[in-house]
């Protein structure tokens, strides 16, 4: 049944192709190539991301983002019911400028990891081969292209778990992505040496707006970037309240001269251009 559902999704007519996100101009600094700066004199960049294709993201997060004219990234687990049931709304989010990112087909995590009793046997990364993960992740890129017409993609590793049954699968897919979120840490330590395939991320849960803003301000002091990956907003699981989320968005909206808030794809495209790193080729098909 799952395979049939995936095939049906692939057969849904593709949305009109959207323009690719431009990487942005390279900024030249008198201090040499090791210096890094964000465009237009901004002090930090902020990536607002939302994992798992949850209903509360469509119901609460996207309307709030749109009210504040902020663009974000939504990492779709392609087997989620909300993707099947609310596909036109996800397509509308992409048309309005939000990024649809890759979060794998089945959200494989390690069942052996602490607190992962919820991992189903058929979705256990510990029993999935690295090659199986490669094929599934690349297939997810093809399916996402059928949804939004885009060719460039970023990836958030489910649970941050990368070790499959026979080894780390991330090197097998890294070349397919402009950026990959893996590991723990909201603020990137050093933009001049950041590895686009290993960008750390924080998954807030039950925090206040003041706590979120304090992390953003920390990034400004370092000239760095913040990577938030939310799950539920005012509902679902691993939730942040609507009030805390709204407080963060209002702060970012009011301080656009200080913070560049954009999709992870746009931010990492800029980072690659600034660092002289190539963008990946168009989405490859699994084989």
Summary of the model, kept short:
The protein has helices at residues 2-11, 55-67, 81-85, 87-95, 130-148, 170-173, 209-222, 242-254, 264-275, and strands spanning 44-51, 73-76, 99-102, 155-156, 163-164, 167-168, 180-184, 199-201, 225-230, 259-262. With 287 residues, it is α/β, with parallel strands linked by helices.
| Strands, count | 10
Share in β-strands: 5-15%
Give the helix/strand class: alpha/beta
Quickly count the domains.
1
Rg from C-alpha positions?
Answer: 18 Å
CATH fold naming: TIM Barrel
Percent of residues in helices: 25-40%
Q: Which CATH architecture is right?
A: Alpha-Beta Barrel
Q: Give the low-pLDDT segments.
A: 1-8, 13-34
**Oligomeric state, counting identical vs distinct chains:** single chain
* Main β sheet profile: 5 strands, parallel
How far apart are the termini?
A: 22 Å
**Cα shape:** globular
Summed over residues and divided by their number, the pLDDT gives a mean of 88
Number of helices: 9
Characterization of the model:
By secondary structure, this protein is of the alpha/beta class. It has a single domain, classed as Alpha-Beta Barrel (TIM Barrel), CATH 3.20.20. The protein is 34% helix and 14% strand. The chain is built from nine helices and ten strands. The strands form three sheets. Strands 1, 2, 3, 9 and 10 form a five-stranded parallel sheet that branches. The N terminus is likely disordered.
Features:
5-stranded parallel β-sheet; alpha/beta; 9 helices; 3-stranded parallel β-sheet; TIM Barrel
């Amino acid at each position: 049944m799952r395979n049939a559902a995936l095939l049906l999704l692939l057969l849904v007519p593709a949305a009109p192709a959207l323009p690719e996100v431009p990487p942005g101009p390279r900024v030249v600094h008198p201090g040499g190539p090791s210096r890094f700066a964000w465009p237009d004199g901004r002090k930090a960049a902020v990536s607002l991301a939302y994992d798992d294709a949850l209903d509360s993201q469509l119901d609460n997060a996207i309307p709030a983002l749109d009210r504040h004219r902020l663009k974000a990234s939504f990492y779709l687990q392609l087997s989620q019911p909300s993707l099947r049931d609310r596909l036109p709304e996800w397509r509308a989010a992409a048309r309005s400028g939000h990024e649809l990112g890759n979060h794998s087909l089945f959200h494989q995590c390690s069942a052996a990891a602490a607190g992962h009793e919820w991992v189903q046997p058929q979705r256990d990364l510990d029993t999935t081969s690295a090659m199986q993960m490669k094929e599934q992740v690349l297939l997810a890129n093809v399916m996402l292209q059928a949804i939004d017409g885009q060719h460039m993609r970023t990836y958030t590793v489910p649970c941050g778990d990368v070790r499959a049954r026979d080894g780390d699968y991330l090197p097998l897919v890294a070349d397919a992505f402009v950026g990959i979120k893996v590991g723990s840490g909201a603020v990137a330590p050093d933009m001049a040496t950041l590895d686009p395939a290993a960008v750390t991320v924080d998954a807030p849960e039950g925090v206040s707006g003041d706590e979120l803003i304090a992390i953003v301000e920390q990034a400004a002091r370092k000239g760095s970037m913040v990577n938030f990956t939310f799950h539920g907003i005012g509902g679902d699981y691993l939730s942040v309240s609507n009030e805390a989320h709204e407080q963060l968005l209002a702060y970012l909206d009011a301080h656009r001269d200080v913070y560049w808030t954009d999709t992870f794809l746009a931010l990492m495209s800029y980072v690659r251009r600034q660092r002289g790193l190539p963008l990946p080729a168009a989405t490859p098909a699994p084989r």
